[in-house]
Design goal:
The complex is a heterodimer of chains A (118) and B (110). Chain A is mainly β and 118 residues long. The model of chain A has no long low-confidence stretch (mean pLDDT 91). Chain A contains no helices and 11 strands. Helices cover 0% and strands 53% of the residues of chain A. In chain A, strands 2, 4, 5, 6, 9, 10 and 11 form a 7-stranded mixed sheet that branches. A 4-stranded antiparallel sheet of chain A has the order 1-3-8-7, with no helix packed on it. Chain B has 110 residues and is mostly beta strands. Chain B has no helices and 11 strands. Chain B is globular, with a radius of gyration of 13 Å. The model of chain B has no long low-confidence stretch (mean pLDDT 92). Classes of the chains: A mainly beta (118), B mainly beta (110).
């Protein structure tokens, strides 16, 4: 099946710093990538949807100026958590949807990035 | 009301048992339905899609009732390796947005 990678797999940073997370589709082109966040014992919550070459669409309640998303190519999307705070500590997971005409538009998930802000 | 609701469990069952999970969704315009499996500290992985006619994949059987907005997953002959969290997922909207339930945790013991 299609492979999606994320880097780093885990990161610890100090409060106030920025962290960049990369999401790559390794063996397919992804016109659309999704960014999710999962807090302990909670469900995955969609943060934003990004289409290659255009601005991301953020879900209600997600600050676009805090969570910067760039989808510059068909195989790479980045999420930058700016001025991170302890409450941003979470499991961030990306998924990529293959660019197939007519669907079925299956999403492939990356292995996730565990962010801890101290 | 949550968009996708599941009993969080945990369900503790012995090996070989049959266990069933249920899920309800609130958006009647939902288009597609799935069960995902998530192991601790890992990404979710697609277990199976759920079709209106019901479908089976080995020991796993999924059912969908659109009228009641209800989805189920049945696992027969549970294995230790089935221990995980099972996520009910619904897809809807023009962007094919996936909405996840909080998951039901299954623990299979020897």
């Amino acid at each position: 099946g299609a492979v999606v990678s994320q880097h780093p797999s885990w990161v610890i940073c100090k409060s106030g710093t920025s962290v960049k997370i990369e999401c790559r589709s390794l063996d397919f082109q992804a016109t659309t990538m999704f960014w999710y966040r999962q807090f302990p014992k909670q469900s995955l919550m969609l943060m934003a949807t990004s289409n290659e070459g255009s601005k991301a669409t953020y879900e209600q309640g997600v600050e676009k100026d805090k969570f910067l998303i760039n989808h510059a190519s068909l195989t790479l999307s980045t999420l930058t958590v700016t001025s991170a705070h302890p409450e941003d500590s979470s499991f961030y997971i990306c998924s990529a949807r293959e660019a197939l005409a007519g669907g079925p538009y299956e999403q492939y998930f990356g292995p996730g990035t565990r962010l801890t802000v101290t | 009301r949550k968009e996708v609701e599941q009993d969080p469990g945990p369900f503790n069952v012995p090996e070989g048992a049959t266990v069933a999970f249920n899920c309800t969704y609130s958006n009647s315009a939902s288009q597609s339905f799935f069960w995902y499996r998530q192991d601790c500290r890992k990404e979710p992985k697609l277990l199976m899609s759920v079709y209106s006619s019901g479908n089976e994949d080995g020991r796993f059987t999924a059912q969908l009732n659109r009228a009641s907005q209800y989805i189920s997953l049945l696992i027969r002959d549970s294995k230790l390796s089935d221990s995980a969290t099972y996520l009910c997922v619904v897809k809807w909207g023009g962007f094919q947005k996936l909405v996840f339930g909080t998951g039901t945790r299954l623990l299979v013991s020897p």
